[in-house]
């Protein structure tokens, strides 16, 4: 298991524990404004007649469904005489795409070099995002969140020749608070 996956597992476990704790015991929040306009939030009521303040809902994004994602394939062939293998060199699996980066290059390679013309499809989150004559694509615009990508090779008859393993990448965008 890679260090990044261990950290992710620990982070998700801590987050889950925090959410469960929040659901069990969430004290009311009180808001007070002093004579200078300074706002203070507290779980202690400033006086006995205070009423709890209703906090706005948090900004969240639902998780992506994995239904419909292409399955990882080692070497998949049709009736072709060659066994082809596609790999994705960039971005690395589980890579974060930083704020400000507006596109990402998905760089793949196929071995051995095809003897016939193939069409390549970039599949992102279960849907074909781009097609081309080489296994290299530039994906733009990038939406915030976690995405799963793979590359498929298709022959002239529309048959799947081979597909890469899935990679995951995370597009990080700053949150805008109200």
UniProtKB/TrEMBL annotation:
Keywords: Signal. The keyword Nucleotide-binding does not apply. Residues 23-61 form the DUF4124 domain. Transmembrane segments: none annotated. It comes from the Bacteria. Residues 1-25 form the signal peptide. This is DUF4124 domain-containing protein.
